Amino acid sequence: MSLDRKITVPFVVAMGALTISLCVPAANAQVRDTGRTVQSVETRADKCKNQNSKKIAYTFNRGPARIPLRCGTVNWGHKHLVERGRWSTSFKNKINETLWKGYEKSPGVIFRYKPGTGCSPNPRKNFKVVYNKGPLGGRPGGVTPQGVITASVEYTPRSANAC
Question: Of 31, 112, 127, 154, whose Cβ has the fewest other Cβ atoms within 10 Å?
Answer without folding.
Answer: 31
